[in-house]
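Weekly structure sync - notes
Attendees: PM, LS, DV (DV joined late)
Agenda: review two folding runs queued last week.

Item 1: First target. Sequence and structure tokens pasted below for the record.
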Amino acid sequence: MFGSDPPLPVVRTVADLRQALAAWRAQGLGVAFVPTMGALHDGHLDLVREAGRQADRTVASVFVNPTQFAAHEDLGRYPRQEAADAALLAGAGCDLLYAPAVEEMYPPGATTTIAVGGPADGLEGEFRPQMFGGVALVVAKLFNQVAPDVAVFGEKDWQQLAVIRRMVRDLDLPVRLVGVSTTRDGHGLALSSRNAYLGEAELETARRLNGILAEAAGRARAGRPLAGVEKDAHAALLKAGFDRIDYVAVREAESLKPFAAGVVDGPARVLAAAWIGTTRLIDNLAV
């Protein structure tokens, strides 16, 4: 009946996904891929639009990956809204939605894991030690399932992107990675699905994060000692109303190692994770 069709095709199994992709490849079409956990916002849609510029066809996945959440984290309350996500993806030019069930991604008896190091060490890796192994596993599986020519990720999760870049190099995965600048609201707040947890007063606090990081980046760029830059940024976040700070750090942009000299002497990022109540926000800026 008119109006009853989904806004774009949806597949839920690896077999159906590969069948759809095979038809595209038989026509010589290139494939771009955007992995997501759903609850889509304009930042995700910017990734989809960039994917459309990178290849002939775009696949997006919506899968809330349980292996990257610890038992105490927000897996159960992470927002899920597949129908709305599908409509948004269609409007951004996506051609196919892959929305597998947990049992499809991790069949009973699955035991394989991926251990990651290098850029996974420290920062998020310290405070969420289970995260990057879970991210690497699900992204590797998705890359094997979709076999994209290019995959598009947001720079908001800078450390995650660095880990995936390292994994692609280490495992010789035949996919080109494209990073897209963080999408922000009119106040500079990085768009995030978790922003939906924030009330108006909490949003006012959250919108101070970007400015504090920008000030820290400017001081680091000017050659100020990084220990002082990080200490002052930490204090500024607490003064701005954040309840606690997991980290605020200036690191080498690719390796995410601390600068040995204690000052910036190459490409760098300033990264932070801070809490407002029970909501944890992350952000980063180039130095």
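Item 2: Second target, run right after the first with the same settings.
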Amino acid sequence: MTAYRGEIWLINLNPIKKNNEIGKIRPALILQNDELNSGDYPTTIILPLTTSLIDDAEPLRYRIHKREKLEKDSDVLIANIRAINNARFIEKLASLSNTELFTIKNLLDEVLL
């Protein structure tokens, strides 16, 4: 199993340790670069998605419209970046365009810088 940057995968984020952490089995965007993704690196940096939509929530959220196996419109939770063990990956659901990835990177820069 190799996940690539810009793909959305179904991921098991349980168990959670704190109430404000995102849990459950849910889609997540692969953010980590493909050099690490295709190596033997044991973790991957992701951004979780939610179907609890909030309009006009940038830079904290970015709306992704349903496509491929992603069955519902979802918000990427920009501020919930995390690294997960690769054993948590379940199934590839969809891929984002380069334009969408560029926008998400810019939103992440706004949150982090």
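Discussion on item 2: The radius of gyration is 13 Å.
Action: LS to circulate a short write-up before next sync.
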